[in-house]
Amino acid sequence: MDKNTWIGFLLIAAIIVGFTLITRPSKEELAQRQRYNDSISLVRQMEFEAQQLSAAIAAEQEQNQQTTNQQSQTTNDLLPSVFGPFAPSAQGESKEIVLENNKVKLFIDTKGGRISRAELKEYKAYGDSVNNLCLFRADESELSFTLITANNRIISTKNLYFEPIQPNDQNVIMRLHSDVEDAYIDFVYTLPADDYMTSFVIAPHNTKAVLAQNVNSLEMQWSQLIPQQERGRKFEERYAQLQYMLDGGDMEKLSESKADTERESARIKWIGYKDQFFSTVMIADETFDGSTLESTPQSEHTRYIKEYKTRTNVPFDVNGLKSTGFRFYFGPNHYNTLKAYDADKPKAEKLHLKELVPLGWKIVSWINMILVIPMFDLFMGWGLHIGLVIFLMTLVIKLIILPFVFASYKSSAKMRALKPQMDEINAKYPADKMQERQQATMQLYSRAGVSPMSGCLPMLFQFPVLMAMFWFFPTAIELRGQSFLWADDLSAYDAILTWSTSIPLLGTHLSLFCLLMTAVNIVYTYITMQQQATDPNMKFMKYMMYAMPLMFLFIFNDYAAGLSYYYFLSLLLTIIQTMIFRLSIDEKKLLAEMEANAKKKEGKKKSGFMARLEAMQKEQQRMAREQAKANAKKLR
User: Fold this and answer.
1) CATH fold of 87-358
2) Phi/psi at 284 (nearest 5 deg)?
3) pLDDT tens-digit profile of 311-331?
4) Which of 106, 180, 246, 317 has the maximal Cβ count within 10 Å?
5) pTM of the predicted model, to two decimals?
């Protein structure tokens, strides 16, 4: 090659080297490219691992499917040995069928064929203004019947699946199929319009082919947790109780304060799972036999008040010629509502569900039934506010017992008018001559026409009325959720102050109506004590009289605000009555009248009672003297 050729090659090489040097990437660009290459490698590695993982998962799923199929096949093979002829109903899907009217909403689960949830559409739980009040949910209740098959399998209906037949808002048939084509058991539910009562019928069909022929009854297990529905848990616990009625009409109940179990050999007509204001009642068309009933209080740290359980037996016709019937009551403990179920019924068929509303002892309950409840319904029917209704009731009751109160006050006034003469008798006959003092006192009462019992008897007549109101207000569901002044619920306490730490006897709150009642009671006690003669030896009794209103503060602090409001009004009206009596009765004129009556009685024959009383006193004095003489001889 010539010189020019070599120079050309060298220039081309120089250009290539120079271009390479100029276009060479920087360290930052090299690092960025390396990161890019690394990312590409990582993605390819992840794709490879994902493919391997997918293959492994697919292989595992295939293996699991094979295992599941084998287990399913094994389960299907075992079902007849476990569930006997009801093996076809041992598997299924749990669904809920809804029955509904304008009062209740019931959910019936295909698993077990039972009512799994009951809601009352006219009521709300405390603190929930949106949702219906729920008596129980699926996990809070259980109802099951034990079946004995022809091949001696013992099965609980709670483990079987029912098929709903022709469901609608008021009726549904829950059918339990067997492996015999025309042999099944129907649970028939019927919810009438505008009623709290639901019909439940167990209707067997050709079951003699699948059930043991010697069976004439079914064992029933029924349990339910009672959730807290009201503000005052302590008070709600007091009224939550398992209650039942024997076939003859006698009412029985388990303890409301502690765990209790009753094994009842007598036949039972109905069993009630009762809360303060609501109940779930199961009523047998015939009876429950051989029953064991349990009531267990729940911890205060849970949302439940009590747990009720019943194990009993119900009649059952395996031949399917006769159905087994029940009724469920899901509703309020409202006296008139419950009483209406006995309307126009013969005595032998009466359910006496009204006994679920506690109205007190016999005479007290009569006052509530005859006087208090009709009067309350009358005023409520006028469309008045609940606060005004309670005021009118208080006023009417005070007018009814006014003659007794006036007689009691007048008797006290007579005793005060006779105090100077009583002081003379006490001075004349010291404490060691008590019998002579008593005789002189009775003579004074006889001449003045005063009876010591005349002041006590009127108070005795008032006591049943006061106790009737004491029982009525805490159980009157009409007060539930009704607000008045600062109280948002007259059926519960009206806390004006609350605190976190519980104070003994008082709790964690202070109720304002209760506080007002206590204050007025102290004023009334002061007025009463001013009317009584002061005795230096009775100072302790005076302090005790003032201590009683303070005790009521602790007693009634948890009670219904409606009750405290009633007692507040009653005491206030009593103070006004007392002031009117004081202005209308002149004790000096009263003393003059008694002295005039005493003069008229002089020379008249004493009444038989006073004559016998004086004779008894003289006999006691004679015996005391003889005893004293006998003791004196022994000392000699």
Assistant:
1) Beta-galactosidase; Chain A, domain 5 (2.70.98)
2) -90, 140
3) 999 999 988 888 999 999 999
4) 106
5) 0.76
